[in-house]
Specification:
Elements lengths: L1 E4 L5 H13 L3 E5 L6 E5 L8 H4 L4 E5 L19 E3 L2 E3 L5 E5 L6 H14 L3 E3 L17 H14 L2 E5 L6 H7 L2 E4 L7 H9 L4 E4 L6 H13 L5 E5 L15 H10 L4 E3 L1 H5 L2 H14 L3 E5 L17 H17 L5
Helix pairs in contact: 3-4, 3-11, 6-7, 8-10, 10-11
Bound molecules: phosphoenolpyruvate and manganese (II) ion.
The site of manganese (II) ion has 5 residues, from loops.
């Protein structure tokens, strides 16, 4: 159920509606709009009767929400959400570039990469300090040391940091350094982690699970929003299909679907989407034109020596060329940087 307030409804009227929702044992979610405030209700098991609200002063309309995901849906909030991450905007009308190595490997590696990323015009540096790996024998990340390096690099180059949070235990330490918490594909349905990330107030980049449907992705985001963290962006990073020539099948259609059904920004990750260096650029270009609010690219000083995802990481030269092209495309479709 969504309660639409009248245009010009006062703070006390909004407060009274939220209070009534709480009295019924549900949770109110105030959603400011350009014309009027809407209040979403969560925590109800079945339909909520509109009679409880219809006669409260300032209420214009009670609208049932048909989708299982509510707070992420356009039904509840038709206006697109724009995230402001220390002055860098992600969402409707803007284009952002997020780039960096798969993993933080050393001081030299992360500083050299950050310099190239900052010079390209990107405002976000990505890099994992905690790496969830398929094999227990593979490089698991520098952990606390990786976070320290990210913190240093963030100050030096004025970049916003996107880094993965692998579990609830490391969440407080990661959230100290990260401007955006990445929840990886393997953790998309780690409900304890989603709940913990929902209770804190850092923006979250939620990656689509390896075999997740879009509805499952939306429901995972719903955990974050229902706990009060509305700063969420989706990330399409490819899904597992019968195809084996690419690492994953990069689902370009997901970008259009996410934008059609939800108000949250979408980030395209063609690096994991295809998993092959030479195929990253064409898919990145396609993602910008398809409407992605941001593109995330892996780059490394020497991809052949990378401790993770070298096969899909661009050399600095390739990255410089691609970033210039992506900004040019974004300008062409009138996106602000
Ligand atoms: C990553 O971004 O390096 C990563 C591990 O991504 P994913 O969770 O999409 O596999
Ligand atoms: Mn990676």
């Amino acid at each position: 159920m969504l309660i639409l307030m009248q245009k010009g409804a006062t703070e006390p009227q909004i407060h009274a509606v939220c209070q009534r929702i709480r009295e019924l044992g549900f949770a109110p979610h105030e959603i400011p709009g350009s014309i009027r405030v809407a209040i979403g209700i969560t925590g109800n098991q079945g339909p909520v009767s509109p009679e409880a609200f219809q006669n409260l002063s300032g209420v214009a309309e009670c609208v049932p929400v048909s989708k299982p995901y509510k707070l992420v849906s356009k039904e509840v909030k038709p206006e697109p959400t724009v995230l402001d991450i220390r002055g860098a905007k992600i969402g409707h009308g803007h284009f952002s570039l997020i780039a960096g190595p798969c993993s933080v490997e050393s001081r030299d590696q992360v500083f050299r990469t950050a310099e190239v990323v900052a010079c390209s015009g990107a405002k976000f540096l990505r890099g994992g300090a905690y790496k969830p790996r398929t094999s227990p024998y593979a490089f698991q990340g520098l952990k606390e040391e990786g976070l320290r390096l990210l913190d240093e690099v963030k100050r030096k180059f004025d970049l916003r940091i996107v880094t993965e949070v692998k579990d609830t235990e490391s969440l407080p330490a990661v959230a100290e350094v990260a401007d955006v918490l990445q929840i990886g594909a393997r953790n998309m349905q780690n409900f304890s982690l989603l709940e913990a990330a929902g209770r804190q107030r850092r923006p979250v980049l939620l990656k689509r699970g390896i075999s997740a449907t879009l509805q499952e992705l939306f429901m995972a985001a719903e955990y974050l929003l229902s706990l009060g963290n509305y700063q969420v962006m989706f990330c399409e990073r490819g899904i597992r299909t019968f195809e084996t020539m690419t690492r994953n099948t990069f689902d370009l259609s997901a970008i259009a679907m996410i934008k059609h059904h939800t108000h949250l920004p979408v980030v395209a990750d063609p690096s994991h989407g295809v998993g092959i260096d030479w195929a990253v650029a064409p898919m990145a270009r396609a993602a910008v034109v398809a409407g992605a609010d941001a593109v995330m690219i892996e780059t490394h000083p020497d991809p052949s020596k990378a401790l993770s995802d070298g096969q899909q990481s661009l050399t600095f030269e390739e990255f410089r060329r691609l970033s210039a092209e992506l900004f040019e495309l974004a300008d062409w479709i009138s996106r602000k940087r």
